[in-house]
Amino acid sequence: MNIKPPNRIARSYIQRLVAPPSEVFPLLCPVREADWIEGWAPRQVLSESGLAEPNCVFTTAEGDSEAVWVITRHDPGVCAVEMVRVAPGVTVCRLTIEVVPHGDGSAATVTYRHTSLGPAGDQLVGSFTEDYYRGFMEEWERRLNHYLSTGRMLVSAETSGAAS
Description:
Blueprint: E1 8-17, H1 21-24, E2 44-46, E3 57-62, E4 65-75, E5 80-87, E6 91-102, E7 105-116, H2 119-127, H3 130-150, H4 156-163
């Protein structure tokens, strides 16, 4: 048995969103994310309802293999969701999102916790810097706010045009 301290990193970010939690929360779903995240395409979604729910399992591409996600908590009453993602040989990730009212919209606290499973995971944990995470979250926030405002996905041409 090999017992050692984990190589782990956690990052949190608070997104400011332009809609109330009741509009935001349903979009935090492996199926509905395809409406607003360009390129999001789970390979398989195992769900009784066809959407996010407790014990929903879905898979996504992870390099040449697959990552398995399990929704461990899905509570529309408090707009909280938790998922665990296992990328074999890379990381186990726990993702938590809590959406609360904030002004005329919402604040969503998004926390990723990565635990390395080996050399590839060590590399991922090492590159999961505060600057990287902030950029990742700001892009997610921009895409979600665009969808909430327009009902349309923000596509790359619009993203690059907005930056100039």
